[in-house]
Design brief:
- The protein contains 19 helices and nine strands.
- It is of the alpha/beta class.
- It is globular, with a radius of gyration of 24 Å.
């Protein structure tokens, strides 16, 4: 659809260091304007009706790091006056600001985002803002796990899949048409983990899937898709609490206990509980999704604990807790390192990056969390391999890793091998296990046992 100049929208970046190309790439119909000095900001606010772009602004991104003159409350009040009803997003590169999220929201901002840790969440938020404006032509789609779709399901919305290269969404199941066994078999055969529905239909999907589970066991349940959403939301909240500076003496011990209680609750209610199903189907329920920190950690927890339960070895609850915090140390890395893929790091950056397991443990200890030696080993050694390769700050002899550490390491790598943000995996589960075995980094006997349990017989539709 063609756009004219009157239809163009604008995102205002106020003292914001985020690359405007990140924002501009979300829609070709968006202009990005930067305000970098306190004087320019004051002139902008004072302009009142003289600024012809006021009505074009759909969102304001504000970074406190670039402004030492004004308080957060002053900024929020000025922006609310200048741009009433517009989305105000607080961006910070300092994870310590996470502790102020609720007060920042009370001051008038819609939400706080940590850059680069939460850049995916920030982009999703901006997309949802842009989609409200018809001139952008944007339609948002939410992933739903394939395992949550059953033969005979009839939805009042269309279901799509996404092309891996062009990222285009293709309608495959029309609203009002029952899901057929042929359709499910086709996507299972090609190892798709999830399909897409219009984002505004997500709550409707949750209710329908929950009711369907209730008809089976007599009480409403959570679909795998909704469970993943809840885990990620809770994990984000708990992660922020690690950086709340109410951390001196006895109060820190109490805070640490509360955090650990919340981590245990997430593990017990959303990771360790699983419905009766084949091992392959249980694994399917964990697969797929973006590689943002919260999604990855929750999936690693599900996979690692599932591996332990299936093998009948190790402590699955310990693995799930370790997985939820194993990459916490990445929040303390410089943004220029945290924003890169590991393979793109320079030699010097890689040395700093490889300290993140030790940084994770440091954060836990600063919060006075009482953790045993097994959990400590899981966190410190999750990048150390069974054959002695990999890295860690703690020395160990070949073959001496605990079973929990080995399974966490396998789950961590397994998730990267199979996950894709389009629904189709990089590798199928069977091929991912083969890849792990070929690398000879993990115990081949363990890998063979896992492949036999999880891939020897797949569910029929």
């Amino acid at each position: 659809m063609e756009k004219n100049e009157q239809e163009r929208l604008e995102i205002l970046c106020l003292f914001c260091e985020i690359n405007p190309e990140i924002v501009a790439s979300l829609s070709s119909n968006i202009d990005v304007r930067r305000i970098n000095t306190a004087a320019d900001f004051e002139a902008l606010i004072a302009a009142e009706n003289e600024d012809p772009n006021t009505d074009k602004v759909c969102a304001v991104l504000y970074s406190q790091a670039g402004d030492t003159k004004h308080s957060t409350l002053e900024i929020a009040q000025c922006l609310a006056y200048k741009y009433p009803g517009k989305a105000l997003l607080f961006i910070t590169k300092d994870i310590a600001n996470a502790k102020d999220r609720e007060s920042i929201k009370k001051n008038g901002f819609d939400d706080l985002f940590i850059d680069p840790l939460e850049v995916d969440l920030l982009q999703k938020k901006i997309l949802s803002i842009l989609a409200r404006h018809k001139s952008t032509g944007l339609k948002l789609y939410a992933p739903v796990k394939l395992v949550d779709l059953q033969v005979g399901d009839v939805f009042d919305f269309d279901v799509f899949f996404q092309l891996s290269v062009s990222k285009k969404y293709i309608r495959y199941i029309r609203a009002g048409i029952a899901v057929s066994s042929e359709v499910l078999e086709k996507f299972r055969k090609h190892s798709f983990n999830f399909l897409y529905i219009p984002e505004e239909s997500l709550e409707s999907f949750f209710k329908m899937a929950g009711a369907k589970l209730g008809s089976i066991d007599g009480k409403a349940g959570l679909s795998s898709t909704e469970k993943q959403h809840k885990v990620e939301t809770l994990l984000r909240s708990v992660t922020y609490k690690f950086f709340d500076d109410k951390s001196a003496g006895v109060s820190a011990i109490g805070e640490g206990r509360e955090i650990f209680k919340e981590l245990n609750s997430i593990a017990e209610n959303f990771i360790l509980k699983s419905p009766k199903a084949s091992w392959f189907k249980k694994m399917q329920m964990t697969l797929g999704g973006k590689q943002d920190p919260y999604s990855h950690s929750s999936r690693v927890g599900s996979l690692g604990s599932l591996f332990a339960i299936a093998l009948g070895e190790g402590r699955p609850e310990l693995i799930s807790i370790a997985a939820l915090v194993h990459d916490l140390g990445k929040t303390l890395l410089p943004s220029e390192i945290a924003s890169k893929k590991e393979e793109d790091l320079t030699a010097v950056e890689l040395i700093k990056y490889q300290l993140h397991p030790e940084l994770s443990l440091r954060i836990l200890k600063e919060r006075r969390l009482i953790i045993d030696e097994d959990l400590t080993q899981c966190i410190l050694l999750h990048h150390r391999k069974w054959n002695g390769s990999g890295y860690s700050s703690k020395a160990h002899s070949v073959g001496s890793l605990s079973i929990e550490t080995q399974l966490l390491s396998i789950a961590d790598e397994f998730d990267y091998l199979i996950s894709s943000d389009t629904g189709g995996p990089k590798l199928s589960p069977a091929k991912a296990f083969d890849k792990l075995r070929e690398k000879l980094e993990h115990n081949p006997i363990l890998i063979n046992r896992l492949k036999t349990i999880f891939c020897s017989q797949q569910d029929s539709p």
